[in-house]
Amino acid sequence: MIGHVVILYYSRHGATQSLARQIARGVESIPNCEALLRTVAEIDNETPAADPVLSLAELKQCDALAMGSPVWFGNMAAPLKHFWDKTTPLWIAGDLIDKPACVFSSSSTLHGGQETTLQSMMLPLLHHGMMILGIPYSEPKLHSTQSGGTPYGATSVAQHGSSLTADEIELAQQLGKRLARTALKMKED
User: Fold this and answer.
1) Domains of the chain: total
2) Which residues contact residue 188 at a Cβ distance below 8 angstroms, ignoring those fewer than 6 apart?
3) Residue 184: CB partners within 8 Å, gap ≥ 6?
4) What is the CA radius of gyration of the chain?
5) Which among 28, 16, 1 is positioned nearest to 117, based on CA atoms?
6) Contact 82/119 with Cβ under 8 angstroms?
7) Could you give the percent of the chain with pLDDT greater than 70?
8) What is the CATH number of the domain that holds 119?
9) CA-based diameter of the chain, in Å?
């Protein structure tokens, strides 16, 4: 039994992509789980994607989903929202009901709107009947981080040219592990 976890993200400058890769590492550290890194197309289709673009068939077949976006005015990025606006066939069929999901985000400042962006990403997932997972306060780094990380999901504060902090990496990997373990438990039922 293999758990297939889609790590879906949109990233303009690489910070959200870095978080996606750390969540994928967490997922793949759990035996019998594999991460599928995917992105969404640009609305203008001018910029080539760093990873393959997620298809509706791949989304339908996943056992769990992690979704990430940079903060755009306290909301998810438009290309990610555009992708979800095309998922009506999956919604009508109930293809994502009871699948675990989590969210992650990055911003250029600590108070840039990370939590509202995380919440905006939760809305389509809830409408699809997915089960939202966060980071519980049992994670020690959630108490001590001076940069990214919230109970709503993994986050980073991306200064120009900076890389993820040790706390941000740890929290992202722990969220990936939690998502993978939950996906495997759901497959057992």
Assistant:
1) 1
2) 1
3) 1, 3, 30, 32, 33, 63
4) 15
5) 16
6) no
7) 95
8) 3.40.50.360
9) 45
